[in-house]
Structure formats: C-alpha cells, structure tokens
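Trying the structure run again after the queue cleared.
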Amino acid sequence: MDPATAERLSQINQPIENVENAKREEQQTLALFWEHMPVIDPSLIRDRMLAIQNKIQALENRKRALIRS
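Done. Tokens:
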C-alpha cells in the first residue's frame, strides 16, 4: 500500500468508528422504545422512532461516504 493510501485510511478510521458508535447508540435507543414503550400518545412514539430510524440511515450513509473517500 502506498504511503498516501495508508495515511488516508488512518485518517478515516476514527470518523468511521465514531459513526458506528453513534449508530449503535441509536439502535439501542430504538430497541428500548420497542421493549418499553411509554404510555403516551402513540403518534409521538411513532414520530420519535421514525426520527431515530432516519438518523441511523444518515449515519450509514455517512459511513459509506467515508469509506468511498
């Protein structure tokens, strides 16, 4: 592997790890909603769960972009 490629890989490893950790946290939050749905308006729960799913998708997209760069 040439030095420039090695340097680029070392630069993106931490951001990728950060994205993976954030995604894992969001997935855990989403799982908690499913396991322990609070007794509140179901539409509020649905909206929050959709927001979490959208954030997870954005994190996956960010990770793919980091890998492609």
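The two ends are 16 Å apart (CA to CA). Worth checking whether this holds up in the mutant runs.
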